[in-house]
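Listing S7. Sequence submitted for prediction.
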Amino acid sequence: MISKIDHIEIEVSDASEMAEFLEKLGYEQHRQTEHHGESYEYVPGDGEGPLFEIHTVSGEETPGINHIAFSVDDIQEESERLEEADVDSIVGPYDVDKTGRTITNFRDPDGNRFQIVSDDD
């Protein structure tokens, strides 16, 4: 079942500047990866709430929310359920080595991107 928000990816003009901003809000750096060139992941200091993944825009990207991702226990089962429900533009599941996760992307009726994710254990 899809329910808990796992993370929200935000594309920003300057990832370092956004990282400093999140720290002012009480967020703590979870990790830094090479996903999207260089990506920072921040979690709330109190542990309550979704992770923010941020990276600096490049090319034709524009600042804003790239996607919202939900955690699931069985990504294969959820991906199949989305297909059966005729959800639009399903891509996945596939592994992302740089983050250690398996993801499936899909779109809402307005074309906004969403994901379901499962940590690779």
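Caption to Listing S7: primary sequence and predicted structure tokens for the chain studied. The chain has a mean pLDDT of 90. The chain has one domain: 5-119.
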